[in-house]
Design goal:
Blueprint lengths: L12 H33 L3 H28 L2 H15 L20 H30 L13 H23 L2 H32 L15 H29 L7 H14 L4 H25 L6 H25 L7 H26 L5 H11 L4 H6 L1 H24 L7 H14 L7 H23 L1 E7 L2 E11 L5 E9 L2 E7 L17 H8 L8 E5 L15 E6 L2 H8 L6 H5 L4 E4 L2 H5 L7 E6 L14 H10 E10 L8 H10 L3 E7 L11 E7 L6 H4 L7 E2 L22
Parallel strand pairs: 5-6, 5-8, 6-7, 8-9
Antiparallel strand pairs: 1-2, 2-3, 3-4, 9-11, 10-11, 10-12
Helix pairs in contact: 1-2, 1-4, 1-5, 1-6, 2-4, 2-7, 2-11, 3-4, 3-6, 4-6, 4-11, 5-8, 7-8, 7-10, 7-11, 7-12, 8-10, 9-10, 9-15, 12-16, 14-16
């Protein structure tokens, strides 16, 4: 119970502004550094969402160490010693300024780069990030001892910290990234860090003066004041689940909805917003509303986002996931805020929160990819969030109550498994099964006051839904790597004679990266984005008379489809980032393009730009850029420096072909700017098939050359409609120092 403030205590607003401003600045610096350094690292690792998630684990780990340091500093040392030790730590951190990557860093090509990435982060930004991480608990603890009339409950300052985080996070893609290059961002951040250190010094000086005026020591914590183990574990669970859910949703939307880097910040923005709300003065009213709304949203969320996601546009599906995520995190964080202790346990409280956040990140980054072959940790944490609703502890304490709550879910599992194994032709009953699952989703609402039953029913629903989708998709192979979820599926098409025919598809997330017809007469026929009717097929057809001895380089292997354009005298090299893609594409059990068309071609594993720099100049007659992370080309492969590198390696009369098919980004604008800036010649074809030919799909390609006459054969071609790139005025040139996807969003 809070005590009434002493009427003689300080009521200065300046004191609040100083401490709140310090927390705001610290949080802003933290959440500018995160996307900034993620962007610096992405070129080395191909733009995978796992890069962002691994960075998040590093940040959470350093945050935990910062909170641990703040806890021990504030509980073991008097205020004067705290200040002296912290000043020494700050001085040492200046050695890491200005922030940046160590020289000549290169990721491993044959093994998982997770630990390499964490090591690089530690060397690059470990010290300054550690100082920033200590600020929230330490400054709040200092504020609790400066004698202000609100010092007995300083948790509201945490809202200032999260507002700083939120503003910085949203400012990065819309204000900082479009206007400031990476080199300037790094130097500006270093200046901001020095300003933060001056603000921390001002807070320390205020505390020093307050303690000189009042040398009253804190009352020792008696045994009655000790926190129980159950309380600590409850805090741990309430912080662990949202942290894991954050990274799970980030991975899910990046692989199953839309792989757009801009979307990575949206779940983190929502996550920070929940902290601002739950530590505000409106917490009590808002928390009860969130608890009531969570099961209401659960019905449409489960029905449309899991049972039948195909009926929704991607932005509606994304909205449902974010809404469900917001409510789940609001309930967990709301309970966490409701159970906050008095100020003598403040650093312990924050320490447990940060430890749980770190555990959540580690679970998603180090454990889940090794035990799951898809992003199953995300639905698992949805169930866990429902389990942590208010009322769980009371029901668990009563054995009869929780045993009764287990009966209905147990019966449901038995009946569901019985139906699944007894029905021979599941697709025939798909609509009936779907309706049954949706009705069951509606039934879960009646158990909203019983967290255990609600969570178990939701888990059962998702389990059967995933099982049903797995059976219907005819997945032959699925594996998860650092770079995403790869799968091989078998499907049916109708051939030119109207007969059913099997074919194989290669997926990265939800984006198809190649397909092959299995009939002998068609198994060597390039398909999907690489069909003979499409732009790349037209290129090979038009230059067929002059390309007998071509040297060809290709970034991105996919299913190996392009290898079927090979001629015996030619030399082909594929550059592929993910070793598993090489394994799958080379395995004739799944795809036979390589084994049938070009089994001796060279495959180089690793980042294409780093590998390409080692090649001799003017080596290639044709160079193809077909690299994708799900639906997005890694931006570092489309910068001016990248285009210059390609042309350094291409012969003077050679051709650069770029595959730019994309659901969300108008990449032709970026290439149009490069054409003008680098004085190149370019043509584009946005191909749409005129006939219904199996596995021939719409696709966009750009070809570039140093001389216009090099592309004359294509420009005059009767096979397709090649056009000049449209003139673009609203896009700044992309460089290694500057990229901005907001301006090219479709």
């Amino acid at each position: 119970m809070k005590q009434s403030p002493n009427p003689t205590t300080d009521r200065s607003l300046l004191l609040i502004f100083l401490f709140a401003g310090t927390l705001f600045t610290s949080a802003a610096l933290m959440f500018v550094l995160q996307p900034m350094f993620g962007k610096i690292l992405l070129p080395l690792l191909g733009g995978s969402p796992a890069v962002w998630n691994t960075c998040m684990v590093f940040y959470q780990s350093i945050l935990f160490l910062g909170y641990l340091y703040a806890h021990y500093l504030s509980t073991r040392l008097d205020h004067h010693k705290q200040i002296m030790v912290h000043v020494a730590v700050i001085v040492v951190s200046f050695l890491a300024l200005p922030v940046g990557l160590p020289e000549s860093v290169s990721p491993p090509t044959e093994s998982n780069p997770t630990f390499w990435l964490i090591g690089v982060l530690f060397l690059s930004i470990g010290l300054p990030f550690f100082v920033v991480s200590t600020t929230a608990p330490l400054i709040q603890k200092w504020f609790a001892n400066v004698g202000h009339h609100t010092s007995d409950d300083p948790y509201y300052l945490y809202a200032a910290s999260n507002i700083g985080s939120l503003i910085a996070l949203l400012s990065y893609p819309f204000v900082i990234e479009p206007n400031i290059g990476l080199a300037s961002q790094k130097s500006d951040w270093s200046v901001g860090f020095i300003v933060l250190c001056l603000l921390i010094a001002a807070c320390a000086f205020t505390l020093w003066k307050a303690q000189q005026a009042k040398e009253a020591a804190e009352e020792p914590i008696t045994q009655d004041d000790e926190l129980s183990l159950s309380t600590k574990l409850h805090w741990l669970a309430l912080a662990f689940v949202p942290s894991s859910l954050l990274l799970g949703l980030t991975t899910f939307i990046s692989t199953d909805i839309a792989s757009v880097p801009l979307l990575w910040i949206i779940p983190l923005t929502v996550y920070l917003l929940t902290f601002i709300i739950v530590f505000s003065k409106w917490h009590d009213k808002v928390h009860s509303l969130m608890v009531a709304l969570q099961p209401v949203v659960l019905l449409p969320f489960i029905a449309y986002s899991f049972i039948n996601p195909a009926v929704l546009p991607y932005w509606v599906d994304l909205g449902l996931h974010l809404t469900a995520f917001f409510l789940a995190v609001m309930v967990c964080h709301g309970e966490l805020a409701r159970l906050r202790p008095n100020t003598k346990h403040l650093t312990t409280y924050y320490l447990i929160m940060s430890f749980a956040g770190m555990l959540g990140g580690m679970f998603n980054t180090f454990v889940a990819p090794f035990i799951f072959n898809a992003v199953y940790e995300y639905p698992l944490m949805i169930v866990a969030a429902l389990l942590l609703r208010p009322g769980l502890i009371d029901s668990v304490r009563n054995r009869k109550v929780w045993l009764m709550q287990l009966i209905f879910p147990a019966l449901l599992v038995i009946v569901g498994l019985g139906l699944f194994f007894s029905i021979d032709d599941l697709p025939q009953y798909l609509d009936t099964i779907g309706v049954g699952l949706i009705l069951l989703a509606g039934l879960t609402y009646s158990f909203r006051a019983q967290p255990l039953t609600l969570a178990l029913l939701t888990g059962i629903l998702i389990f059967f839904t995933f099982g049903l989708h797995g059976l219907l998709s005819h997945t032959l192979y699925q594996e998860r790597t650092f770079f995403g979820v790869l799968s091989v599926r078998e499907s049916m098409l109708t051939d030119e004679q109207g007969q059913p025919e099997k074919y194989r598809e290669f997926y990265h997330g939800t984006t198809k990266h190649g397909a092959q017809r299995l009939a002998d007469k068609d198994s060597r026929t390039p398909s999907t984005y690489f069909s003979r009717q499409g732009p790349i097929g037209q290129l090979f057809s038009e230059y067929d008379k002059v390309n007998d001895n071509w040297v060809v380089g290709i970034i991105g292997l996919g299913a190996g489809t392009l290898s079927c354009y090979t001629k015996p005298q030619q030399s082909w090299t594929f550059y592929e980032l993910d070793p598993l893609v090489v394994d799958v594409a080379s395995n004739p059990t799944y795809f036979t393009f390589i084994s049938q068309c070009n089994p001796k071609m060279t495959m180089t594993v690793g980042d294409a730009r780093l590998s390409l720099e080692k090649e001799p100049d003017h080596k290639f007659d044709l160079f193809v850029v077909d690299a994708f992370s799900s639906d997005s080309i890694p931006t570092h492969l489309l910068t001016q420096e990248a285009i210059k590198l390609y042309f350094d390696k291409i012969k003077p009369d050679g051709i650069l072909a770029l595959h730019i098919t994309n659901r969300h980004l108008a990449l032709k604008k970026v290439l149009a700017v490069h054409e003008k800036q680098l004085q190149l010649s370019a043509l584009i074809q946005e191909f749409k098939p005129q006939q219904d030919i199996p596995l021939v799909v719409a696709t966009d390609w750009v070809v570039m050359a140093k001389k216009p006459e090099t592309l004359e054969l294509l420009r005059k071609s009767q096979l397709g409609n090649w056009q000049k790139l449209p003139v673009t005025f609203d896009v700044k040139p992309w460089t290694d120092d500057f990229t901005n996807i907001v301006t090219i969003w479709k």
